[in-house]
Amino acid sequence: MRNVYLTLILLIAATATSFAQNPLPKGDAQLNMGVGLSNRGIPVYIGLDYGIHKDITIGAELSYRGYNDRFNNSRYKHSIIGFSGNANYHFNHVLKIPTEWDFYAGLNIGFYHWNSDENYPGDFNSGVGIGAQVGGRYFFTDHFGINLEFGGNNAFSGGKFGITLKL
Predict the structure, then answer these.
(1) Domains of the chain by residue range
(2) How confident is the model over 87-99, as pLDDT tens digits?
(3) At 9, phi and psi to the nearest 5?
(4) Residues of the signal sequence (predicted)?
């Protein structure tokens, strides 16, 4: 138990003394991963953002979700795989936001493949989605933070949250 307390104290000390420079500098990359919000299953995602300008990033993301559904007293399995690209504008310089925070908004376009049991009588289809997002990150250290994003008309239909690792 002493080791757990010591580890927590060291983690708190490290986060209190080291903050990242945000947004993501030109030429740098960060990895994002976590879970999404959806009315059909819980999506998991992994994505990569790349700085192309001091206030602009582009990125790509892969997501998966599976869930079971009842339709006419029968049970069906579904899985959805999504791939999307995004572009975000980061407001840190314009709004003079402290460096441990990162606030952004942008657009995304993606494709999702919906797979259901062969005999499923419903009408879910694969397709292309175009959407928008607004989000933020808080960095505890130079390389580790948490993220929260809200958006719509894509594979998440609501939002997502998780962790960010600067590479």
Answers:
(1) 2-166
(2) 999 999 999 999 8
(3) -65, -45
(4) 1-20
